[in-house]
Amino acid sequence: MNPKPFLQIDRVIHEKGRLPIMSLLAASAGMSFTEMRDALDMTDGNLSMHIKTLQEAGFVSVTKSFRNQRSLTTCALTPSGRRAFSQYIDLLEQIVKQARTAP
User: Fold this and answer.
1) Strand 31-32 to 70-77 pairing
2) CATH of span 4-94
3) 19: closest CA among 40, 41, 48, 44?
4) What is the pTM of this model?
5) How far is Cα 72 from Cα 102, in angstroms, rounded to an integer?
6) What distance lies between CA 102 and its chain's CA centroid?
7) Maximum C-alpha span of the chain
8) d(CA 31, CA 18)
9) Which DSSP letter does residue 43 get?
10) What residue spans define the domains of the chain?
11) Is CB count within 10 Å lower at the N or C end of the chain?
């Protein structure tokens, strides 16, 4: 088995709390913090920490605004975040293919 694909996995995306965030955002134009928190059943603090890491990596943009006089935080994948997630999925597909064809 070729170990090279395993060594190329993006650790920022691969972490178990961040992969679901990236997956949700990849399937939408953007989501509110509350929508993500509820969909992923995460605490505010845990979700905030993971979003901050993804934002620092340049994968997620965070927009703060107001709706009905309440603050609204919305997150979306950046173009580099979409590319990184696509590359991550392609790499996982290579790993799965390799595992299925192993003797």
Assistant:
1) antiparallel
2) 1.10.10.10
3) 40
4) 0.89
5) 49
6) 29
7) 61
8) 15
9) -
10) 4-94
11) C
pLDDT tens profile 80-94: 999 999 999 999 999
From the number of C-beta atoms within 10 Å of its C-beta (0-12, 13-18, 19+), residue 76 rates as: middle
For residues 95 and 92, give the distance between their C-alpha atoms in angstroms, rounded to a whole number. 5
The structure tokens 């975040």 sit at: 81
The CA dihedral of 24, 79, 51, 61, to the nearest 10 degrees, is -110
Residue 75's contacts (CB-CB under 8 Å, 6 or more residues apart) are: 21, 25, 30, 31, 32, 33, 36, 51, 60, 61, 62, 63
Q: What pLDDT was estimated at residue 6?
A: 78
Q: Which residue has the tokens 């989501």?
A: 31
Q: For residue range 58-87, what is the model confidence (pLDDT) as tens digits?
A: 999 999 998 888 889 999 999 999 999 999
Amino acid sitting at position 52: K
